[in-house]
Amino acid sequence: MLMLNNISAGYDGVDVLHDVSFTLKPGENVSIIGPNGCGKTTLLRAVAALIPFTGELEVSGRNIKKLTRADAAREIAMLSQITPVYFSLTVFETVMLGRYAHIPKGFLSRPRPIDYEKTEEALKTVHMQELKERELSTLSGGQLQRVFLAKALAQEPKIILLDEPTNHLDLSYQVELIKFLKEWSYAGSRNVIGVLHDINLALLLSDRILLMENGRAVMYEPGGLRANELGRVFNIDISEYMRGVVQRWEQVG
Prior knowledge:
This protein has one domain (2-222): P-loop containing nucleotide triphosphate hydrolases (Rossmann fold). The chain is globular and about 60 Å long. The protein has nine helices and ten strands. It has helices at 40-47, 69-75, 91-96, 113-125, 141-154, 171-187, 199-205, 227-234, 238-250; strands at residues 2-11, 14-24, 30-33, 53-59, 62-63, 76-80, 159-163, 191-195, 208-213, 216-222. α4 (113-125) packs across α5 (141-154).
């Protein structure tokens, strides 16, 4: 479903991402981990075709550079960490924005009954239908993230990109969000690609882990991780740290 071959990208003519390659089959998820500044978010932005890049990137067998913006939006949606809200759209209006790629374009174009149905369906999925008339500025952080997830679901993409979506969320909602997206991908033979700082959440979400260092992919592992490689990249003995955490939890009454 997704193929990256030697993808490089950056800003102001300077590449921060270098020759990254990987493939994902339908229903397969990957988490991208690595130190700050290693190119994780740049990789997501390249996959979403939000920034120029070199190399080959195919979605559902099609070159993403040859897709219209609407066609690309039907393939890929992006869910980022919560940012301050400065506009006064309602919850329903925000989720309806996810339907723009599906609404026929024209002088009198407007949402169709199916677009309202899909918006209501997405709100129901994230348990926000009772708050659909509320303005975004009145919502909590967890409620906002549910709205943005509903917007992504209303878009009906084949791939959802996560850019630190769990930052500032309660632990229970972090786990709920990751589990939901994992089930969503498996049920529809879709993909989730997540940039996550929490390695435990990354393992919970993913079939594969992509470890990055200085803009390059240094490990792409199915299932597990190589602790020695993680330790080298993060400059910490991961195994010792995790064993210490487990010991602390064993002492919790």
